[in-house]
Design the sequence.
């Protein structure tokens, strides 16, 4: 089986606001729709919630272009979530209490995204613009990936791996 790419909230938000605005680079969004329709990229309900809290063009685009099965149920991985949460809670020497609380917040997608990907480690990769960081004020996805052996890529590396152009 080939990999499924699990996209982070910033995959959409950074593309929309910075890199590939909807009105300037429609070919990017057509490619995202194509990959979502074919099941090559997916995400979780918590990411959807983060996107849909903003009443903007991106929310409308997602509503109109992504299949309902694109958004996976993040509550189906309690064991993996427990592992991720226990690790996060134990990181008091590395991160501030606020960073840990934010990471463990039920409304924040990152820990759930990590748990969902960890549940099928061989077949899932996380797609994020985040980079590893030594900062204490935010637990970054790549730092969690390093601890749990989760593969992650930035969006361009994903498109290259898929052999996709737009």
Sequence:
């Amino acid at each position: 089986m080939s990999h499924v790419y699990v996209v982070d909230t910033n995959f959409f938000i950074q593309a929309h606001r910075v890199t590939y605005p909807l009105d300037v680079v429609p070919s990017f969004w057509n490619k995202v729709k194509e990959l979502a329709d074919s099941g090559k990229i997916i995400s979780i309900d918590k990411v959807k919630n983060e996107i849909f809290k903003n009443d903007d063009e991106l929310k409308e685009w997602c509503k109109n272009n992504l299949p309902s099965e694109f958004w996976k149920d993040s509550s189906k991985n309690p064991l993996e979530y427990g592992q991720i949460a226990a690790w996060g809670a134990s990181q008091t020497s590395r991160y501030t209490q606020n960073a840990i609380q934010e990471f463990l917040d039920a409304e924040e997608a990152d820990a759930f995204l990590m748990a969902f990907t960890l549940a099928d480690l061989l077949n899932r990769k996380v797609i994020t613009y985040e980079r590893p960081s030594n900062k204490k004020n935010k637990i970054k996805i790549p730092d969690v990936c390093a601890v749990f052996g989760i593969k992650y890529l930035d969006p361009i590396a994903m498109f290259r791996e898929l052999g996709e152009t737009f």
Remarks:
- The first strand starts at residue 4 and ends at 7.
